[in-house]
Amino acid sequence: MIGTIPKLHGSLKSAFAVMFLVLPLLVLFYGHALANSTPDAKLNGADQLSRLSSSDTLTATIQLNAGDQIGKPADWWVLAETPMGWYSYDYPGAWNFSEGSLSDFSPAYQGTLFDLTEPLEVLRITGLPPGEYVFYFGVDTTVNGQLDMGTVSYDWAAVRVVEAGSYPVVDTDQKTCYDNLGSIPCPGPGEPFYGQDATYPNVETSYTDNGDGTITDNITGLMWVKARGSKVTWDDAVAGASVDRTGGYEDWRMPSIKELYSLFLHSGVNGADYMSTTGFVPFIDTDYFDFKYGSGVGGERVIDCQDWSGTEYVSTTQHDQPTVFGINFADGRSKGYKKFLPPTWTEKNVLYVRYVRGNSEYGKNNFQNNNDGTISDLATGLMWSEYDSSEGLNWEQALAWVQAKNAENYLGYSDWRLPNIKELHSIVDYTRSPEKTSSAAINTDYFKCSTITNEAGQEDYPYFWSGTVLVDGPSREGAYIPFGRAMAYLDNVWQDVHGAGSQKSDVMIGDPANFPEGRGPQGDAVRIYNYVRLVRDI
Known about the structure:
By secondary structure, this protein is mainly beta. It has five helices and 34 strands.
């Protein structure tokens, strides 16, 4: 296990080079994989990473299934190509740099093959310069200290490091692709439903249990209280932060909705019966965070286990009630929750709260107008289209529209995608709403947003599709965010029930006219034809 390079050879082209440990390379092992010998290389526990912020920590691990080759002598190689040049690993901890030929390198280790079943960490580094990296681990049964392309078996993992920002968007953990009816093999370019969430691997979650009641998010830099706690009123949740001493810390705070949303995992599943946990999978990593469903007894459904955030809605919802955004890690949705309960609106609502500390800049955008129809967010490393689709599309059409824009090299780029739900959530501006600012819940200094007429006949702003799918019992629904009022037909009137900037899900195909009074227990509006805003990596 290493955190700095103990040994380097050759002159370095940059002082940053001293931070390189084992990383990536792109063109090294074009040999044939040996039968029954399977090397495995991972970055941050994943086979591939599409993007990593330069402020994030990168780890590289290797494993080996030697198969029938156990006991056979071999050269073990760990090599990397970086923006600064090539590196080779010298077990147990030295990294050597070469400005020239790879023939200058020696194997990391020479010895018999054996099953390396536990991941061996050969890299842990923070602060990598931007650029492309590929990391290779291989074993070569021709033992001569040189790479022999006919006898080397290898695995590789790659990552693109982008400029550091204070707001890394963690992956949704959605690895399954869907059509309008259910799961499908992930489509390729040009095929229907290509370009959804699971098409694009991203920075995966990485947590550390500190053993003192706290969990550190290694990607966002946030530290969380591990315990579930008890349900409390909004006022008690706010007051409790200043007296919480979990882990011996005294600077706990209520999480903003964007901080809390970073914990969302859209690998979660809703069961078919809200009075039983059968079929449910939580939308939070329960390997690290304590979680508890509702009892499913009496009037309490298993999904009645929402979390407060510290973000109050700047408007009101449902008969002018004060509202606070929160997340339901049981059903995969984020809404505005009322401080008081119907029908009298005098009984205080009680939800869970999970306090946070560290990285007070998380969730704050740093937009830059590129004056070419694109907006860059230097905090997240994402580039957005200034304008939206200007028309509503069903989910399949939305995916196809993105690919059509890529085919025409829209705004000079051909790698646009439909944002996943966490990426889309990152550009919500919770200081804005139709009632408060007469605008969409987005920074209108940078973005243009289409207007619509909503179900109540008001001028309003669209719902926007993401590429993420919510598995909701037997149905599959596209996750969306309303940048205008989140409408529902409740108490015989259309009204904003959940708040601009909430996150829900919609039927992906059909006729909205078939839902004249919405659907679900709160009569949520069904639009089906939602809008699109393009995103790409900077």
